[in-house]
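Appendix C reproduces, verbatim, an entry submitted by the partner laboratory led by Prof. M.T., so that reviewers can inspect both the input and the predicted structure.
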Amino acid sequence: MAAKIFKGAEYLITEVLKDEVFTPEDFTDEQKQIAETTEQFVVKEVAPHREEIEHQNFDLVVELMQKCGELGLLMIDAPEEYGGLELDKATSMLAAEKISSAGSFSVAYSAHTGIGTLPLVYYGTTEQKEKYLGKIISGEWVAAYCLTEPDSGSDALGAKTTATLSADGKYYLLNGTKQFITNGSFANLYTIFAKIDKEHFTAFLVERTTEGLSVGAEEQKLGIKGSSTTQIILENAKVPVENVLGEIGKGHKIAFNVLNVGRFKLGAGVTGAAKYALAEGIRYANMRKQFGVPIGTFGAIKEKIANLSAAVFAAESLVYRLAGLIDHKLATIPKDTSNYYDVYQKGIEEYAIECAIAKVFCSEVLSDVVDEVVQIHGGYGFIQEYPAEGFYRDERINRIFEGTNEINRLLIPGILLGRAMKGEIPLQREVMKALEALMTPSFDEIDDSVPFAAEKVLLQNLKKAFLVLAGSAVQKYMDKIKDEQEILMAVADVAINIFALESAVLRAEKILGTLSDGKKTSVTAAVKVLAFDAVEKISTAAKRAAYYIEEGDNLTMVLGGIRRFTKYDASGLLQAKRHLADVALEAEKYIF
């Protein structure tokens, strides 16, 4: 684990050392065993029934959930005192990554173990946990989460579902409709959000058999067709008062804090899906012949495989770095703390920015992967007989799940600036340093004998670019910056790509000395590909932000700084890409 506890977003204002990050190479034997168990479950139990699941054989899905329970895969995040394993977030993310190759079934699993289970774990009373948690983590019951409504998606607090206390004071009568509920048709326990007296946003634990609760028809979806997505309709649904979850009027705490983990877990899941899809694309490139040779021998295809391999390396590095950050923070909380889960939730909330980054970056890596895998397949990528077509349809929801990528992009600078104004992070001080650097000529000295020295200097400069833009935006708009969404989105793209690149560079630097010469070459090649790509993305986003914020001489100065701060010598880029592609084609899989 990391040698120090980092604050959320601290990576933007400090230099992080290689030994301060957790990487996949740090997995314990126990974590590797859980990963193997999960992979074998998918291969032996899910894969043979993939077509049945896609045609919505939900009896089979429920049966498979019960088998997951028997293997302990539903209890990773549950406390030991209620029969759970209470393992760390790295293990939880590893299971989420490995289950992802199960296609639509992974959606049922992820919804159940994440947003379906965690509200009860974090906010349930002892009585509620004793009544429900054992059933959920064993697979006897399936859980679902009901926040979205027909007229409130991103605006979760705009929900219209109401809860009114019955005359005898024993029940709350819930009225309203919840939309797009994963596991809706077969869940046994729903976490439902409603406003008591149309005002106090509150969560409730609602059993499937509750009088007044009914399930709508299955939505006809673009992808993930084997998952259940329905409305949950509440017509004077009688919910016992003891089934209020958490505090009355504090439902927003549950909704948003659980979503942080949901975003993080989605990042892990889509990274696993990207590995799986990439392997299919590579195998097809080896098998398909045109002009008498495999298409994988063509430079146009090799470049795609190299770019995708490097991008997945970054996504994987980012996810497990974040797991390490969170686990190290949570490990400092004594288990006998009286308000343990309140402190625990604040520990996770500390990394809300990084959770949003994981969701956005990793889901967009998967998007790039499946798009190119379809392209590698050519016309056959459009045919249902080949898995590429299904990858393409299933991927699209991930940029909408757990808050759209646009909402998550807005959260990143929004939360950062909010913390800066509270004095929780010394952003203003670092902005002043970056502005001073902007106006001071510099000649970066790079020691070529030090691995990744150029990339580390680059990262220092990219952080300066971010700080200059953030400072300029706040100086011009002050507290109204929250309404300048185009600027916030551009600045977020800079922050996202810095975290991703830095995660990959630190991982590469940490593991380099343990690798064979061939593996060293591959890792070094991946870093070069990633650095070039990140610089291009950050440069574009930064220039966009500069034109949005500044004008005249200030614009000229900021643009000059961006050019200086995004300078990177990518000599050897083509050779690096060809090496990555050749190794991946030989292995016929993701190589890291």
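The longest strand covers residues 171-182. Additional entries are available on request from the coordinating office.
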